[in-house]
RNA sequence: GUGGGUGUCGCCUAGCGGUCUAAGGCGCCAGGUUGUGGCCCUGGAGAGCGAGGGUUCAAAUCCCUUCACCCACCCCA
């Protein structure tokens, strides 16, 4: 887990503000669920065989003996809230977004943390392909506004539970004669989660894997129609995508449409964000059968990609350093508050420093202006204001003059 | 869960059994004559070497244990 320091503030805020703005643009409202949930919320939904449940959950008992979990992902928690608050009786679909920390007890490495921040949206109560496409479009818009270039959208349909079972059986039959020639990992997956064999990097070139049947051939008529609708709508919006039958998603509750966004030149865990449809999830959580679709994206991975792509522009807003000379600290403090009242960031230098030291401090704090308050200024109720960047002249001003001079909008009147 | 790597002042790094009561760079603080910065100069503060145990006359330097972090796999965002 890691700390977020002021140096990252600009980038962090850029990502967070953009995410929230895009969510609102698409009509999604904020939902904030607890960091801690009854463990069953995740145990029942995410899937016993998934790594999240089998090895990556922070589990503990509280004083009352209840089994709790630090939330490992957002969708199940949001759906639990949907059921608990009777959102089925709201106009459907219900559009929700969240932005917060998730917890996974896995081994940290590049772009992977035990506390990770995710932004995600859930569109609950709409079975139509249009809902999938809306979420994909929202996600694409987010990346575009963030300035994340060259992401590849890969989509697939993994069908409903029925079609998936048929496909899994067929895949197992296809691979069974070749199991002995597969890698150890694939042999294990053959037993636990055959779909994952298709994902294996080791066996990527194995003829039995390359020649495996595609899940797309096992979709029933309605799943196939749904997937066709998704593609048609994406085409209509001009959203580029690749169909990748090997995307299977690690969580059990996914059904029909699934997708991932990957940066160019990607390594293994480079997926920046992913999503999918989860039509059976609400029912699993005790609600009436309700369709849903959503996406989640990793904030740290976005920041990693933005940093690799190059610095983001951080326009420096006016920031004033007030330098008190002699015993004029009280005047400096009052002046600073007068400037702040005008909506301008202000900090006061430590009393007792030489003017030279104040200049050095103001400079290393990246302030845009220094305001000097000494004997003559204090007696006249003014300050000497000097820009620290560029070659502006030093002038004598009052706090009231500042907003106009620095072209800062004055805060609304009282 | 598996494999590998690293841990010395805030940051980066030197030291790899005795010359270490640990060195340097960056950063920080203070000065460089009377109220003016970013360069430069001078001085200063700041670690006992991740933690615990052991070997030895002697350990930052060797051994063991442990913790943290990093990288890859697994898997996931």
Describe this structure in words.
This protein is α+β, with helices and mostly antiparallel strands and 414 residues long. The protein is 36% helix and 21% strand. It is built from 15 helices and 16 strands. Strands 1-5-6-11-10-9-7-8 form an 8-stranded mixed sheet, sandwiched between helices. Strands 13-12-14-15-16 form a 5-stranded mixed sheet, sandwiched between helices. Strand 3 (59-61) and strand 4 (67-70) form a beta hairpin. Helix 5 (129-146) packs parallel to helix 9 (221-237). The longest helix has 18 residues, at 129-146. The mean pLDDT is 87. The protein binds one RNA strand of 77 nucleotides through residues 50-52, 54-56, 73, 102, 104, 106-112, 116-118, 120, 185, 188, 196, 199, 201, 249-251, 260, 268-269, 271-274, 296-302, 323, 325-326, 353-364, 370, 372, 374-376, 384, 386, 388, 394.
In angstroms, what is the radius of gyration?
28 Å
User: How much helix is in the residues?
Assistant: 25-40%
Major sheet size, sense and barrel closure: 8 strands, mixed
Q: Largest sheet, order of strands side by side?
A: 1-5-6-11-10-9-7-8
| Proportion of residues in extended strands | 15-25%
CA(first)-CA(last) distance: 44 Å
- Give the helix tally: 15
Form type? elongated
What is the count of β-strands? Answer: 16
Task: Flag low-confidence runs.
Answer: none
């Amino acid at each position: 887990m890691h700390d977020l320091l002021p140096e990252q503030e600009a980038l962090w805020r850029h990502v967070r503000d953009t995410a929230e703005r895009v969510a609102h643009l698409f009509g999604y409202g904020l939902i904030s669920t607890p960091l801690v949930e009854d463990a069953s919320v995740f145990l029942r939904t995410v899937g016993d065989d998934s790594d999240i449940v089998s090895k990556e959950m922070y589990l503990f008992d509280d004083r009352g003996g209840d089994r709790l979990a630090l939330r490992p992902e957002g969708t199940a928690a949001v759906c639990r809230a949907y059921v608990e608050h009777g959102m089925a009786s709201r106009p459907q679909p219900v559009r929700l977004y969240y932005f917060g920390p998730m917890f996974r007890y896995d081994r940290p490495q590049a772009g992977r943390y035990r506390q990770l921040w995710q932004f995600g949206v859930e569109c609950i109560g709409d079975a139509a392909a249009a809902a999938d496409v809306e979420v994909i479009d929202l996600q694409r818009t987010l990346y575009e506004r963030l300035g994340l270039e060259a992401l590849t959208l890969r989509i697939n349909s993994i069908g409903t539970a029925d079609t998936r079972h048929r496909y899994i059986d067929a895949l197992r039959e296809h691979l069974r004669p070749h199991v002995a020639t597969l890698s150890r990992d694939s042999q294990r997956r053959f037993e636990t989660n055959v779909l994952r064999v298709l994902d294996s990097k080791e066996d990527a070139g194995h003829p039995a894997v390359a020649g495996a049947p595609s899940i797309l051939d096992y979709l029933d008529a309605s799943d196939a129609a749904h997937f066709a609708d998704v593609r048609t709508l994406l085409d209509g919006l001009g959203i580029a995508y690749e169909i990748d039958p090997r995307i299977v998603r690690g969580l059990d509750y996914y059904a029909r449409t699934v997708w991932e966004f990957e940066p160019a030149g990607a390594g293994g865990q480079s997926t920046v964000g992913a999503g999918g449809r989860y039509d059976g999830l609400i029912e699993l959580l005790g609600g009436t059968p309700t369709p849903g679709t959503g996406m989640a994206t990793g904030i740290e991975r976005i920041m990693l990609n933005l940093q690799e792509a190059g610095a983001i522009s951080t326009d420096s807003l006016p920031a004033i350093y007030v330098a008190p000379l002699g015993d004029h600290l009280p005047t400096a403090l009052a002046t600073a508050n007068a400037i702040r009242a005008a909506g301008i960031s202000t900090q006061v230098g430590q009393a007792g420093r030489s003017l030279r030291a104040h200049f050095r401090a103001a400079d290393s704090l990246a302030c845009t202006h220094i305001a000097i308050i000494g004997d003559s200024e204090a007696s006249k109720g003014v300050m000497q204001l000097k820009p620290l960047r560029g070659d502006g002249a030093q002038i004598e001003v009052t706090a009231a003059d500042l907003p106009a001079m620095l072209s800062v909008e004055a805060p609304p009147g009282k």
